[in-house]
Amino acid sequence: MTASPGLGEPRTASPDLLRSVFRRHAAGVAVITAAGDRPVGFTATSLSSVAAEPPLVSFGVGTSSSSWPVIAEAEHVGVHILGEHQRELAATFARSGADRFGPSTFWRSGPEGVPLLDGVLAWLVCRVVARVPAGDHRIVIAQVVEGDPVGGGDRPLVYHRGAFTALRD
């Protein structure tokens, strides 16, 4: 058997291997929000469309995340698709200990009391229907209640090789 060009030596499964492989996977960037005693939110690159009928989405959230206690109890969440002009917003919601809803974040209370971020490409408010254990994370499945597909801008923010970036033509 001859080696295939471009294939390196296999490595044993580990968190580092998974991170290294997924740094090469370009992903869209979303911010997930929820209302609790105070609003919470985090940057997610794990957002997926699950089904069209009924309309379902999913995302992963770490159980050690500061947002998890509120997400664990929330009936509704906000899903925000970020545009290439929102790198700093994505970084704010990704940074541990950041004041995510401070003066530099423009937002309002939306349907079901969910915090909605201004200037995003699109947003959804979703009703949480399941939280599935998955290692040190939970996969949240949520049914779309309402949303707006036309926001500010038209080019999505992308996460690739450990950085927020834009698509190239």
Strand percentage, roughly?
A: 35-45%
End-to-end CA span = 39 Å
Q: What is the helical fraction, as a range of percent?
A: 10-25%
List the total number of helices.
Answer: 3
Mean pLDDT: 93
What is the name of the CATH class?
Answer: Mainly Beta
Whole-angstrom Rg? 17 Å
**CATH superfamily (homologous) name:** Electron Transport, Fmn-binding Protein, Chain A
Going across the biggest sheet, name each strand in turn.
3-2-6-9-10-5-4
- Structure classification: mainly beta
Encode the helix/strand succession as letters: HEEEEEHEHEEEEEE
Largest sheet features: 7 strands, antiparallel
CATH architecture: Roll
Keywords: Oxidoreductase
Organism: Streptomyces castrisilvae
GO molecular function, one term: oxidoreductase activity
Domain Flavin reductase like: 22-166
Describe the secondary-structure layout.
Blueprint: H1 15-22, E1 27-28, E2 30-34, E3 40-44, E4 48-52, E5 55-62, H2 68-73, E6 76-81, H3 87-94, E7 107-109, E8 115-117, E9 122-134, E10 137-148, E11 157-160, E12 163-166
Antiparallel strand pairs: 1-11, 2-3, 2-6, 4-5, 5-10, 6-9, 7-8, 9-10, 11-12
